[in-house]
Amino acid sequence: MTQTVSSEELYDRARALMPGGVNSPVRAFGSVGGTPRFLVSAKGPYVTDSEGREYVDLVCSWGPALVGHAHPDVLAAVHTAVDRGLSFGASTPAEADLAALVMDRVKPVERLRMVSTGTEATMTAVRLARGFTGRNLVIKFAGCYHGHLDGLLASAGSGVATLALPGSAGVTEATAAETLVLPYNDIAAVEAAFAEHGANIAAVITEAAPANMGVVTPADGFNAALSRITTAHGALLILDEVLTGFRTSPAGYWGLTGANEGWAPDLYTFGKVIGGGMPVAALGGRAEVMDYLAPLGPVYQAGTLSGNPIAMAAGVATLKAATAEVYANIDARSAQLSQAVSDALAAEGVNHSIQRAGNLFSIAFGTAEHGVHNYADALAQDTFRFKPFFHSMLDSGVYLPPSVFEAWFLSGAHDDAAMDRILAALPAAAKAAAA
Ligand code: PLP
């Protein structure tokens, strides 16, 4: 039997060595309190901690594990790639394999550039938009998270919201001044910003469906209107599908909306699922814009480990394993689980709304009357109810995202047995939330 070590012991050690004991802030359980679990393995819909406790996982590595943890096809592809060497710093065949799979799913993507994190993808997309248009200003929406690049950290949702930070120290006023932050779902505000600053706006960047202030449904036609307005003013639309891409449908959230409504963004950003758990992200879009990137164009971007062969192998195997059955399972389980959560909370008289965008959902407490349509709504909810709810679920063996501002992630591996465990945990968690 392998030796077990308590999370407390590991956390003490980690805190002495790394800021807050973590390498990404929300992992520190800051808003829910208690000791973060240290995970040592994952298989299918389950993760196991350092003390040998197994949890049904509703984090799925914050999205990448679309086909379930340690999927046999993905592991086999990675093993094969590892045996050939870890990194060559040169082009490899697998890069084009992954690019072709992406383009097969998201038709408007004519060129793709691989990077290693979602932050790099959005950072490059913004630089490219500025280089292409020759303009400086970028519009983002309050509560949308696009990674931790300086210019997009204002009102950023995700960990910035979880830790109740106003933004980030270390971002210069000059940088912040080049970002216009507007309320989400408010087209009149976008029109007004373009009326005033149109000639200087390089791009609007938006999450295809926000999931970092909890989930928020884009109002009907919102993204289409952004496409129309940016085009009319010669600015670019950057659709951030880092979280939604290849998850909400094979063609992401755009596949549920733009593909049917007849619009496409100028640039997409992808991450998470595209690497199946390895550090891969990408930006893609119209060739005319993408070819502004070096070596063809004047906008510089590079990466020692970009297109890493092992990461590419994981991405290719993950997208191939993401069959229609996987999406059908996630869609059905998401509907079943969100209804069960709502029923359990209602049975305890807990005021809430279930926030949805495709197969993504989250709970917002105290918002039954009006739901959550923007960041102000998200911040005004009864966040204090999440902490007891979260810990009750954790004690019952269900690992939820440790923040009310995050979406719950399902996978193709979440089966009846995993669902039964979650459903059995809900009544006690709802009671805890009601207290
Ligand atoms: N964009 C969105 C919509 C995200 O949800 C995230 C991460 O959660 C990012 C960008 C940044 O990606 P990464 O954490 O890989 O830098």
UniProtKB/TrEMBL annotation:
<keyword id="KW-0627">Porphyrin biosynthesis</keyword>
<dbReference type="InterPro" id="IPR049704">
    <property type="entry name" value="Aminotrans_3_PPA_site"/>
</dbReference>
<comment type="subunit">
    <text>Homodimer.</text>
</comment>
<keyword id="KW-0663">Pyridoxal phosphate</keyword>
<comment type="pathway">
    <text>Porphyrin-containing compound metabolism; protoporphyrin-IX biosynthesis; 5-aminolevulinate from L-glutamyl-tRNA(Glu): step 2/2.</text>
</comment>
<dbReference type="InterPro" id="IPR015422">
    <property type="entry name" value="PyrdxlP-dep_Trfase_small"/>
</dbReference>
<comment type="similarity">
    <text>Belongs to the class-III pyridoxal-phosphate-dependent aminotransferase family. HemL subfamily.</text>
</comment>
<dbReference type="InterPro" id="IPR005814">
    <property type="entry name" value="Aminotrans_3"/>
</dbReference>
<protein>
    <recommendedName>
        <fullName>Glutamate-1-semialdehyde 2,1-aminomutase</fullName>
        <ecNumber>5.4.3.8</ecNumber>
    </recommendedName>
</protein>
<dbReference type="GO" id="GO:0042286">
    <property type="term" value="F:glutamate-1-semialdehyde 2,1-aminomutase activity"/>
</dbReference>
<dbReference type="Pfam" id="PF00202">
    <property type="entry name" value="Aminotran_3"/>
</dbReference>
<dbReference type="InterPro" id="IPR004639">
    <property type="entry name" value="4pyrrol_synth_GluAld_NH2Trfase"/>
</dbReference>
<dbReference type="InterPro" id="IPR015424">
    <property type="entry name" value="PyrdxlP-dep_Trfase"/>
</dbReference>
<feature type="modified residue" description="N6-(pyridoxal phosphate)lysine">
    <location>
        <position position="272"/>
    </location>
</feature>
<keyword id="KW-0963">Cytoplasm</keyword>
<keyword id="KW-0413">Isomerase</keyword>
<dbReference type="InterPro" id="IPR015421">
    <property type="entry name" value="PyrdxlP-dep_Trfase_major"/>
</dbReference>
